[in-house]
Specification:
Layout lengths: L10 H13 L2 H8 L3 H15 L5 E3 L4 E3 L1 H27 L6 E7 L1 H18 L3 E7 L13 E6 L6 E7 L2 E5 L2 H6 L12 E5 L5 H8 L9 E5 L2 H9 L4 E5 H10 L11 E2 L2 E7 L6 H20 L1
Parallel strand pairs: 3-4, 3-5, 8-9, 8-10
Antiparallel strand pairs: 1-2, 5-12, 6-12, 7-10, 7-11
């Protein structure tokens, strides 16, 4: 008997769609899936092209909203992916393999994009038995709407019902692209007056505090650009748009690769360190301990390079 071939869309595109639809954000879907924002957008476009009109999402500046067609697909795709996941777990049990432990992690968006995600492939290779489900937020540890196994925030802070563990230290100093530095050299702090200074709205005094420490409190840049996220400020520096105040932990990889340079490496602002916070009474969770041990090890390597 002839059995018609199944007409199935690309599975990676389905996963990207389901995550973006559930989270209402391509950026958050990228973090959860461990890929870039552009990769999620590309997979969504692939799925929409494969399916044909109507579109699945209405795009806005900060969020994406499902169209009626997208909502109908989500109702079918989400349970199907759950069934696939359950089938995989059953297959592993039949082979005598323990199912992967799920570790729910919430971290700051810039930290996730600039430091954690580039290292997650290494963790998955070293610890295939632990599945890290990452989400991002800037909410305080005790203000999150749900409970996570590990929350990564600045510190040290004290939150009722939570223990903490140091992960990574940080300082801040000016950074720019090598091409910009070649075009407009920075031999002394006063030379910053010829440059565009890149700001972030959440830390409006960052440049002023650094310039005060550097003995140039009255200095003004030739122009300013202000962004609402730190990672946008750092991307602008990478693209040669100006000089940013770079957090040493989050620019260590770019410095090592030569994508960014520090014209004044000896003048640094102190900054809060990164800590892992987790519910009290979970100290004996072996998977959390493995993950935090690994984070701390990666943090030591980063501190040695920054």
């Amino acid at each position: 008997m002839f059995v018609p071939r199944r007409s199935l869309p690309p599975l990676n595109a389905v996963r990207a769609f389901e995550a973006a639809a559930r989270l209402g954000s391509f950026k958050e879907a990228a973090v959860e899936l461990g890929v870039t924002h552009g990769a999620v957008s590309q997979q969504i476009r692939l799925l929409e092209s494969w399916l044909g009109p109507p579109a699945l999402f209405r795009r806005s500046v900060r969020r994406v909203v499902l169209t009626p067609a997208g909502a109908a697909l989500l109702q079918e795709f989400a349970p199907a992916l759950d069934r696939i996941s359950a089938a995989v777990q059953q297959h592993r049990k039949r082979r005598g393999e323990a199912p992967a432990a799920v570790l729910r992690v919430n971290a700051l968006a810039t930290f996730s994009l600039r430091w954690l995600l580039p290292r997650m492939a290494r963790f998955r290779t070293e610890h295939p038995d632990i599945e890290v489900r990452l989400s991002t937020s800037n909410d305080q540890v005790d203000a999150l709407p749900e409970l996570f196994d590990v929350v990564i925030r600045g510190g040290p802070d004290t939150f009722h019902g939570f223990a903490s563990r140091f992960l990574l230290s940080e300082q801040r100093l000016p950074v720019c692209s090598p091409a910009l530095l070649a075009q407009l050299p920075l031999t002394e702090v006063a030379d910053l007056s010829r440059h565009t200074l890149l700001h972030v709205t959440s830390m409006p005094r960052l440049w002023r505090d650094w310039l005060t420490d550097a003995g140039e409190s009255a200095l003004e840049g030739a122009a300013t650009l202000t962004f609402d996220h730190f990672y946008l400020t750092l991307q602008a520096a990478l693209d040669g748009l100006g000089v940013a105040m770079g957090p040493t932990a989050l620019i260590a990889d770019d410095l090592a690769a030569g994508r960014l340079v520090t014209p004044f490496p000896d003048i640094r602002l102190p900054a809060r360190s990164y800590f892992a916070y987790f519910p009290e009474g979970r100290d004996d969770d072996p998977h959390r301990a493995v993950f935090c041990d690994w984070l701390e090890q990666q943090g030591r390597q980063t501190s040695g390079r920054s």
